[in-house]
Design brief:
Order of helices and strands: EEHHHHHHH
Number of helices: 7
Strand order of the largest sheet: 1-2
Low-confidence stretches: 25-47
CATH class of the largest domain: Mainly Alpha
CATH architecture of the largest domain: Orthogonal Bundle
CATH superfamily of the largest domain: Cytochrome c-like domain
Radius of gyration: 27 Å
Structural class: mainly alpha
Number of domains: 2
Mean pLDDT: 82
CATH topology of the largest domain: Cytochrome Bc1 Complex, Chain D, domain 2
Length: about 170
């Protein structure tokens, strides 16, 4: 409503003009939404895994982790990572007892910040994920089709569970 010379009159919008503007606005919003959804789908992991039992890493990634482990981890954790004089076991009941019901992000963060012991924090994010994949493989968790990510936010959604859910 608008006021002209003390009189109230209704402002009129041409139905054709208002409709076209509305359609353009809705069309533009739909286009922005479609582009955003496409970008989000591209950046999302191929599969969503909520447990290490769901195939959170690939065999290839675990092999890369084994190479890093042989070079940087075995001097403390032993040749098969079952424990050494200077490092705890990363395999079996000791590992599962320490990490059960925590997230992969917790394990990743600990490895990233404190390993290797003689040069803490020097592993790259990819090396850290690769080593974690190798540790999970040694603990008999199944490999999957997607690599373990390097982003903490994604790793927070993957739980380390000592026993397979539902069993």
């Amino acid at each position: 409503m608008r006021v002209e010379c003390g009189k109230k009159t209704e402002a009129r919008v041409s139905p054709k003009r208002g409709g076209a503007a509305r359609r353009r606005t809705v069309g533009a919003a739909a286009l922005v939404f479609a582009i955003s959804a496409g970008v989000a789908a591209q950046n999302a992991p191929a599969t969503t895994v909520s447990s290490v039992w769901g195939g959170a890493f690939t065999d290839e990634q675990a092999k890369r982790g084994e190479a890093v482990s042989t070079k940087l981890c075995t001097s403390c954790h032993g040749p098969d990572l079952s424990g050494g004089e200077a490092g705890p076991s990363l395999v079996g009941i000791e590992f599962l007892g320490n990490w059960n019901n925590l997230t992969v992000a917790d394990f990743y963060d600990r490895v990233q910040a404190t390993m290797p012991a003689d040069a803490p924090g020097t592993l790259t994010p990819q090396q850290t994920s690769d080593v974690a994949a190798y540790v999970f493989k040694l603990n008999k968790f199944p490999a999957g089709k997607s690599e373990l990510p390097t982003e903490l936010a994604a790793l927070k959604g993957i739980k380390i569970e000592g026993t397979q859910p539902g069993k």
